[in-house]
User: Fold DUF177 domain-containing protein from Rhodosalinus sediminis.
Amino acid sequence: MARQSDSPNARSDRLRLSVLPGSAPTAFALQPDAETRHALAEELGLAKLPKLRFEGRLHPEGRGDWRLEGELGATVVQPCAVTLEPVTTRIDVPVIRRYLADWQEPAPGTEIEMPEDDTAEPAPEVVDLAAVMAEALSLAIPDFPRAEGAALGEQAATPPGAAPIAEEETKPFAGLAALRARLEDDD
Assistant:
């Protein structure tokens, strides 16, 4: 799958929390090979994924909690959302996850608010670093990449003999604002 860190603590992309040292961070470094990058590029709908690395540390916190702090670096190639030309984007983003041993799932049907801390999740038996890397990459890639100078043109579709509708005419509240201004002027 990947070149791993030389650290004796990071021998795999799957780290079993119960066997990690509870007093020191565990370093990790993933750099997937070409075959793995190609498979991930296909899964994410990318044209190419020439570079990808994910490295960081898994820190013990308190009794059974863990904090993953990492850095994701990637170069992705996607089709331009306007022209379909290849667009290359460099991604360098921090990745933070908190694995909590005392995680409480809400009861089914319970209405809950979105938590402020979106990095927290239940502590798994095994942290799958490749899955964390893939998720972080999928969240970081641009939704609608654009080639330099690519712009959406304006189109108008009207029946023969009809006048095209101007953009201002599609904004009904702009007309109401003008009417209100005229009524206030009359007062």
Summary: Residues 2-140 form one domain. The chain has one domain: 2-140. The longest helix spans residues 172-186. The radius of gyration is 25 Å.
